[in-house]
Design brief:
The protein has 280 residues and is of the alpha/beta class. The protein has 11 helices and 8 strands.
Length: 280
């Protein structure tokens, strides 16, 4: 996939996970650590604005590229891509870095992964940040949007391969929004496998499980987004016992005019870690 520009103070680390090369980026050196996971088919740079705000506030931020995304390997086997496997990747990353408890979150896939992670490993999550989660109400819109993409990636043939090969050679621009788009570009068959794998498995823990997750959570919902409807964000915030709902003005607010939202995210992180410290 096309490489994103790396911040001067960032550290890019390559590891092996179950026979594949996976990459993560580290920013900041604070005592408190936040792990931000990208959306489906997106690279880690999609969370750059949130990461920058947290680093400026004194946090250490980890930005992993899950298998099949960004700078990590992208096998063609759909069996490599499931939400539970993504949770295992993040858990193993924390173990390798010696991190016991972190704030975990991200956008779309990253939001759902955070909820699944907290359900499986409640002792490892200080807090959750869930931007545009996909629950039951958004599944139909997601499938309707992703099915044509899957067909194009899987059966597009030489024209699609040529287009993606040309796009993948474009250099990083340093603009996070543009580099997020360029970072989506990979081998069409691998991208088809990613879509197929995640579509075939569970997208989020069922409601009875969600209602048992007591980890503090900040849920960010977008208006006018049919893949990630505000209804799903409101539903998740209602079902998680310790959740707060934050409404974005539009789909790209956190990428193009992030100050209002990132200020709220930093304040939420501060409260969660302060409460953790008091409890300890």
């Amino acid at each position: 996939m096309a490489a994103a520009a790396t911040r001067p103070d960032a550290r890019v680390v390559t590891r092996e996970w179950r026979g594949h090369r996976v990459v993560h980026e580290e920013r900041g050196t604070g005592r408190r650590t936040v792990v931000l996971v990208h959306g489906l088919l997106l690279p880690a740079v999609c969370n750059a604005q949130t990461a920058d705000a947290l680093v400026a506030a004194g946090y250490r931020v980890i930005l992993p590229d899950l298998l099949g995304h960004g700078r990590s390997d992208a096998p063609d086997d759909p069996a490599c891509y499931r939400l539970d496997l993504a949770v295992h990747q993040v858990r193993d990353l924390l173990d390798d870095l010696g991190l016991e408890r972190v704030m975990l979150g991200g956008m779309s896939l990253g939001a759902n992964l955070a909820v699944e992670f907290a359900a499986r490993h409640p002792d490892r999550a200080v807090a959750l940040f869930c931007e545009m989660p996909v629950l039951e109400r958004g599944v139909a819109g997601a499938l309707a949007s992703l099915a044509p993409l899957w067909a194009a990636f899987r059966f597009g043939g030489r024209p699609v391969r040529a287009l993606f090969a040309a796009l993948s050679r474009l250099p990083a621009t340093g603009n996070d929004l543009v580099d997020t788009v360029l970072g989506c570009v990979g081998a069409p068959r691998s991208m088809a496998a990613v879509l197929q794998g995640y579509a075939a498995g569970a997208a989020v823990p069922p409601r009875p499980v969600r209602e048992t997750i007591t980890t503090p959570a900040l849920v960010v919902g977008h208006t006018r987004d049919w893949i990630h409807p505000m209804d799903d964000a409101e539903l998740l915030a209602d079902q998680l016992p310790a959740a707060t709902l934050l409404c974005a003005r539009h789909l790209l607010e956190l990428r193009t005019d992030p100050t209002r939202l990132t200020s709220a995210i930093v304040a939420f992180a501060d409260r969660a870690f302060d409460e953790e410290q008091v409890a300890a």
